[in-house]
Design a protein that fits this description.
This is FIST domain-containing protein. By secondary structure, the chain is of the alpha+beta class. The protein contains 7 helices and 24 strands. Strand 22 and strand 23 form a beta hairpin. Mean pLDDT is about 85; it is low at about 95-130.
Length: about 400
């Protein structure tokens, strides 16, 4: 169960350390595993992380990015949880390559002799002769055997929700967790990139050790409290009404309502006064939303479109399946991302937020009335790399990088 949670915003390292001391004193007799996500200047990281590790030897944590409203301050989200902690070294997959699936989809018989340990490694042969979907299916099967050792004795019914901090490729651990605990909720935080801060791609902390890859997490039991997992998106503009995917493969949507997807998108943009020649398919502007009950249930960024072929490529490993109802959506450019950081009125929660890649020089930072602001009962962390979530057995894990997108695991 969630024992305690706070998000601390501080002007100085000393102000943060004083708040952490209070959290430690108030939590001393409660036990549990300590979670943290820290955003701080590089010259303050050593003293803060040493402080955290000395107070809480049992911990999992990572470095995060600042939230827009407090980007000039130090932020540290902290929580105490009871559960089964784990460390995963299952590799994920490389970033999707535009057009890869179109080139590969006719090659269904290619056989690759690869050991289980190297199935995730980059293939350097002729990419046009590789059946990537087959590779991934076999990878998922082997992932069941590669489930972290700490979780191997847990029964599926013993795990209701799973939280983890990950590098930027969480597909491996996500596939393994779904194969082993299919009915659980899964929320993964893709740690912020830190090559210019710590010299590591990402920086993960686990019981005194520091890692540059993989994942660390905690599995929660249903007997320790009921949780719900929700996702929210900032104000998106509908470009199209509901459309049905009539064919898709890999990360490509091939046809919508038996028509050309890219032409449908261009027509919708023109209808809304958007000049496709200037803004078509720029990063973080155009999305495909998978609909359920009139609401966006899942969101994928459009990475490219081909008017002649008609295909649209998505920034995901797997496009929505045939028969899915979708809308094309547009996120207007904004100078800042506004987030609701208000307490949730007694409902303890953990929130992961996708933040912008960078903040404009003129973006103001909210002023603090005191040296420190403490948001009780809420663990709030942001990363420009986004988060991955899965709600139960019917949903495949997916990554949200939409600036302002927010996933919340709430105790009810």
């Amino acid at each position: 169960m969630m024992i305690r949670a706070q998000t601390i915003v501080a002007r100085t390292p000393n102000a943060l350390l004083a708040s952490l001391d209070r959290f430690h004193l108030q939590s001393k007799a409660k036990g549990g595993t300590f979670l943290f996500a820290l955003s701080a200047p590089s010259d303050a990281l050593s003293v803060i992380t040493s402080h955290l590790k000395s107070h809480f030897p049992r911990h999992i944590g990572c470095l995060s990015s600042p939230l827009p409203a407090y980007h000039s301050h130090i932020m540290c989200a902290v929580a105490l949880l009871n559960g089964i902690t784990f460390r995963s070294t299952i590799a994920g997959r490389a970033d999707p390559q535009v057009g890869r699936w179109h080139a590969a989809r006719h090659s269904s018989t290619q056989q690759l002799a690869a050991a289980q340990s190297s199935v995730f490694e980059e293939f350097n042969g002729d990419v046009g002769k590789v059946n990537w979907e087959d590779i991934w299916d076999r990878t998922a099967m082997s992932s069941q055997e590669m489930i972290p050792v700490e979780l191997r004795t847990a029964r599926p019914e013993d795990v209701s929700s799973i939280l983890y901090f990950s590098d930027k490729a969480p597909e491996g651990i996500a596939k393994a967790l779904k194969a082993t605990f299919p009915h659980s909720n899964e929320l993964g935080f893709l740690a912020s990139s830190t090559p210019f801060i710590t010299g590591r791609p990402v920086t993960l902390f686990h019981d005194g050790e520091i890692y540059s890859d993989g994942a660390i997490g905690i599995a929660l039991q249903p007997s320790l409290g009921h949780t719900s997992l929700e996702v929210e998106f900032p104000d998106l503009v509908d470009l199209t009404p509901d459309l049905q995917i009539t064919s898709s493969e890999g990360n490509l949507i091939l046809t919508l309502d038996n028509g050309n997807p890219t032409c449908l998108l261009l027509a919708a943009m023109n209808k809304h006064g958007l000049d496709g020649r200037d803004v078509l398919l720029k990063d973080d502007e155009f999305y495909v939303g998978v609909m359920s009950g009139g609401k966006v249930e899942r969101l994928h960024r459009i990475t490219s479109g081909d008017p002649s072929r008609g295909t649209i490529a998505l920034g995901t490993t797997s496009a929505p399946s045939q028969g899915s109802t979708i809308r094309m959506l547009y996120l207007p450019r904004r100078d800042e991302v506004t987030l609701n950081l208000e307490p949730t009125h007694g409902n303890t929660s953990i929130s992961f937020i996708a933040t912008p890649d960078s903040f404009g020089d003129g973006l103001p930072s909210s002023a603090l009335d005191n040296d420190v602001l403490v948001i009780d009962e809420n663990f709030i962390a942001g990363s420009e790399n986004g988060f991955m979530l899965r709600r139960g057995a019917k949903e495949e894990g997916w990554i949200c990088t939409l600036p302002g997108g927010q996933a919340c695991l709430r105790w009810t």
